[in-house]
């Protein structure tokens, strides 16, 4: 397949050589390119490139840093990439989630981290699971949920301090056990040691849960597998549930290219 720069078409297809040049530069050096650099790489006139970059910037496909005057990839490309990655993740996770539902008889959720919010992107529900679908698309404070905490635990202390600049954590439910940043940091350390997180009636009275992180080929935690159920049904098996989720999450991570 020829490089994009060799495709002899007008309009947007021709401008793809700009995006290709920017992508390669960012992958190689971590920085975008100035107009002169783009002209050198693509072999195009500066005046023509300036008009093309203006169109791409308006479309959100490139972004310019006013300080360095370098062009980089725009927000819309990252949005497309995130949607595609999330759809692939959901597709690969479904068989493992259905297996868990069949063996546990409980709803299994796939969750992702967006800023300091935890969002359920997919749920697999047993026949009695009348509440499962209500969580899909709903955002909740990540530090209050096992599904969020296992992902926060992978960020490291400096990142957590930046996300939570105040010692007192916001939006903690009345039954929440972790109410300060110091307590959250300690819990994240425990999660990294165990490989899973558990909660016992923190988010809602009578509700317990467990979660474990899923990693991609880069070794980044991209999602979590979560089970939340009435305490009466789990009957003291919370840690066993966490270990089971950790095993399934590792297997799913392997399917995504992760290697320990």
Overall description:
There is one protein chain. The chain is α+β, with helices and mostly antiparallel strands and 260 residues long. It has two domains: 4-73, Orthogonal Bundle (Arc Repressor Mutant, subunit A), CATH 1.10.10.10; 78-255, GAF domain (Beta-Lactamase, 2-Layer Sandwich). The chain is built from nine helices and eight strands. It has helices at residues 12-29, 35-42, 46-58, 75-104, 146-152, 157-163, 181-194, 231-234, 238-255, and strands at residues 62-64, 71-73, 108-114, 117-124, 139-141, 197-200, 207-215, 221-230.
Strand order of the largest sheet: 5-4-3-8-7-6
The secondary-structure element order is HHHEEHEEEHHHEEEHH
Secondary structure tally: strands = 8
Residue share in helix = 40-55%
The residue ranges in which pLDDT falls below 50 over 5 or more consecutive positions are 1-10
* CATH homology-level superfamily of the largest domain: GAF domain
Described by strand count, sense and barrel closure, the largest sheet is: 6 strands, antiparallel
Radius of gyration: 22 Å
Query: Briefly, what CATH class of the largest domain?
Result: Alpha Beta
- This entry's quaternary arrangement is single chain
- The chain-level structural class is alpha+beta
Calculate the mean pLDDT score and round it.
Answer: 87
Share of β-strand residues? 15-25%
Assign the CATH topology of the largest domain. Answer: Beta-Lactamase
| Overall form | elongated
Count of separate DSSP helical elements: 9
Give the second-level CATH assignment, the architecture of the largest domain.
Answer: 2-Layer Sandwich
Number of domains: 2
């Amino acid at each position: 397949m020829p490089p994009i720069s060799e495709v002899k078409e007008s309009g947007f297809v021709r401008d793809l050589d700009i995006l290709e040049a920017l992508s390669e530069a960012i992958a190689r050096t971590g920085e975008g390119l100035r107009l002169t650099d783009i002209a050198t790489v693509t072999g195009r006139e500066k005046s023509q490139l300036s008009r093309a970059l203006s169109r791409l910037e308006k479309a959100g496909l490139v972004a310019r840093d006013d300080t360095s005057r370098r062009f980089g990839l725009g927000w819309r490309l990252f949005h497309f990439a995130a949607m595609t990655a999330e759809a692939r993740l959901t597709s690969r996770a479904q068989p493992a989630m259905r297996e868990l539902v069949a063996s546990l008889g409980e709803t299994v959720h796939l969750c992702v981290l967006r800023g300091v919010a935890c969002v359920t992107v997919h749920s697999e529900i047993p026949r009695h699971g009348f509440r499962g679908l209500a969580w899909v698309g709903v955002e909740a404070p990540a530090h209050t949920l096992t599904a969020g905490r296992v992902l926060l635990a992978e960020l490291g202390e400096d990142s957590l301090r930046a996300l939570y600049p105040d010692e007192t954590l916001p939006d903690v439910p009345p039954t929440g056990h972790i109410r300060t940043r110091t307590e959250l940091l300690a819990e994240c350390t425990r999660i990294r040691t165990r490989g899973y997180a558990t909660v016992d009636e923190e988010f809602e009275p009578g509700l317990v849960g467990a979660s474990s992180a899923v990693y991609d080929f880069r070794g980044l935690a991209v999602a979590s597998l979560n089970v939340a159920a009435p305490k009466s049904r789990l009957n003291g098996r919370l840690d066993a549930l966490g270990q089971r989720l950790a095993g399934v999450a590792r297997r799913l991570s392997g399917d995504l290219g992760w290697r320990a």
